[in-house]
Design brief:
Elements lengths: L3 E5 L3 H12 L3 E6 L11 E3 L2 E3 L7 E3 L2 H10 L2 E2 L5 E5 L2 E5 L1 E2 H5 L5 H8 L10 H26 L17 E2 L11 E5 L3 H8 L4 E4 L8 H4 L6 E3 L3 H4 L8 E11 L10 E3 L9 E3 L14 E16 L6 H15 L5 E3 L1 H4 L6 H16 L2
Helix pairs in contact: 1-6, 1-11, 4-5
The structure holds flavin-adenine dinucleotide.
């Protein structure tokens, strides 16, 4: 008789774990709070134009196995991601390019500041680290106010991990956002990827699961993979800090594209949103078709999109306590996986990797 694994949540982490275990003959029961699958990576369509209600998602990875899994689950187009930032009324490359500033007369102070940067960045906190990388002017204009909007906190209270790999100055003129070996966007959107990976699982939609529900939906000893936030799962709302975003969509029937790239960052403090997203850029077959969807991304929503890496480490300690509660549960093995349950700022490929690792732990149960 096949064994049963239960998975809480139906995002990309759950999908990777479910796919892996179903292939090994496990019966997979997935419980999802929402009435659709996909979690944060969900794609919607309006008049044939894709848009992403939780923000722009670009698949980029150096993980051969993860790429093989997603690209066998769905067709990917070879989209290369470009981001621009609006500074002093101009669209400039993001990450910032040293060469672009050299050509701008109103940024002459920047070159001198860049020459004075320390050889080793100051890792005291997010702010000291970014100033070491960009100098005070570029930090103030491109990063500081954006960060205050995004995190609702003084950047000096945030950890450097939030900036690492995301903030920097390029000198090589390379203008794609990512350098990973594999990059793309799924032609039918991410919901189709998740649905394809979950095709052998039984998915129960509209079902919120907490630790108290585990006895009702599992047999003793059956493993449970948890991709829900652990403060919710352990019924301790508010134990962890989260940052959420709200996206507001608008349809523009007359224009082919409404902005110069899929993502435009808006660091100015007097603009309420942090960026605008036009996912249509991912699909070249739409490049001459009128009609587009643009989403404005507003920070500060009550959703759980981003774990908060505070410089003092308070959230990390709470997360460790919640993990201990899962470890101490005797009736079933409870295995956290994914961005929410591990309270880590994971990209899709890394989230899928945690799903595959969780599946390996299930096989060892
Ligand atoms: C704005 C934004 C942009 C991003 N851009 C990129 C990008 O370009 N590239 C990239 O690689 N990554 C990107 N990411 C990261 C990516 O979204 C995550 O890595 C990925 O979605 C994590 O998947 P997950 O399955 O772990 O979590 P989720 O997608 O959050 O899935 C968890 C699921 O669990 C459900 N759930 C929660 N609690 C319960 C409960 N108690 N009971 C039952 N179900 C529950 C939720 O409804 C959800 O469906 C971005 C993230 C954000 C927020």
């Amino acid at each position: 008789m096949s064994r049963t694994v239960t998975i809480v949540g139906a995002g990309i982490t759950s999908a990777a774990a479910a796919w892996s275990l179903a292939r090994k003959g496990w019966r997979v029961e997935v419980y999802e709070r929402a009435d659709v699958v996909g979690g944060h990576v969900r794609t919607e369509w309006l008049h044939g134009i894709p848009y992403e209600p939780h923000g722009a998602h670009i698949f980029h990875t150096n993980d051969d196995e993860v790429w093989r899994i997603v690209s066998q689950a769905a067709e990917f187009v070879p989209y290369r991601h470009r981001v621009v930032i609006r500074l002093r009324g101009r669209y400039l490359s993001w990450p910032l390019q040293a060469g672009e500033f050299a050509a701008l007369p109103d940024f002459t102070d920047v070159a001198a500041e860049l020459a004075r940067r320390p050889e080793v960045p100051d890792r005291t906190n997010f702010e000291t680290y970014c100033i070491s990388l960009l100098g005070p002017t570029l930090y103030a204009e491109a990063v500081r106010d954006y960060t205050v909007k995004q995190w609702g906190s003084d950047p000096a209270t945030l950890d450097t991990s939030i900036a690492e790999g995301r903030v920097g100055l390029r000198r090589d003129g390379y203008s794609d956002m990512f350098r990973d070996t594999y990059q793309g966007w799924p032609r039918r959107g991410y919901t189709a990827v998740v649905e394809s990976l979950l095709r052998s699982a039984s998915v129960h939609l509209g079902q919120t699961v907490t630790l108290d529900d585990v006895p009702a939906i599992t047999r003793p000893g059956d493993p449970v993979i948890v991709t829900a936030p652990l403060d919710d799962f352990c019924s301790e709302p508010g134990a962890l800090d989260w940052r959420g975003v709200r996206l507001e969509a608008s349809y523009h029937p007359e224009v082919v594209y409404a902005q110069p790239a899929m993502v435009v960052n808006e660091p100015a403090p007097d603009v309420a949103w942090t960026r605008t997203v036009e996912t249509k850029w991912a699909l070249p077959e739409l490049s001459e078709r009128p009609g587009t969807v643009v989403l404005r991304e507003f920070p500060g929503a009550r959703t759980k999109h981003y774990p908060v890496a505070d410089a003092a480490g308070a959230n990390r300690r709470t997360q460790e306590q919640l993990c201990r509660r899962l470890n101490e549960y005797r009736r079933n093995p409870l295995i956290p996986a994914g961005r929410l349950a591990t309270y880590r700022y994971l990209n899709m490929d890394a989230a899928m990797r945690t799903g595959l690792e969780a599946a390996r732990r299930v096989l060892a149960c």
